[in-house]
Amino acid sequence: MVLCDQPLVDATDIQELLTAFTAHPEYDFCVPVVNGQRGNPVVVSRQAVEQILAMDRQVACREFMQQNPQTVWRHVTANDHFITDLDSVADLDALTERTGWAVESPWV
Questions:
Q1: What pTM, to 2 d.p., does this model score?
Q2: Residue 105: its pLDDT value, please?
Q3: Residue 107 contacts by C-beta under 8 Å, 6 or more apart in sequence?
Q4: Beta strands at 72-76 and 43-44: parallel, antiparallel or unpaired
Q5: Among 36, 54, 62, 97, which has the highest number of CB atoms less than 10 A from its own CB?
Q6: Selection from 64, 99, 104 nearest residue 80 by Cα
Q7: Alpha carbon distance 65, 70 (integer Å)
Q8: Nearest to 78 by CA among 39, 51, 47
Q9: CB 51 within 8 A of CB 44
Q10: What is the mean pLDDT of residues 8-22?
Q11: What is the mean pLDDT of the chain?
């Protein structure tokens, strides 16, 4: 699952997660962890998706992982793309400073 507010995540980052996920087939989820902080995107097995969809009530992926921590591979990495997101104008300003990209804010 890829979030839309992570502009630095690219194909190399996705490949890093897929490699970690396939190296640990006993897990249903692969979650990046950077400096102890949980990141995104998350790789989810088909089996886990089917289990979540078959539940009697609507359950978010994060809630399912919290209820089933034994199914989660924590991929420890230094790749800060997984924790860089745009939740505020300050985040947007920091991204512009970091990358030099000219980005217009939808909040202004």
A1: 0.87
A2: 67
A3: 88, 89, 92
A4: unpaired
A5: 62
A6: 99
A7: 8
A8: 39
A9: no
A10: 98
A11: 93
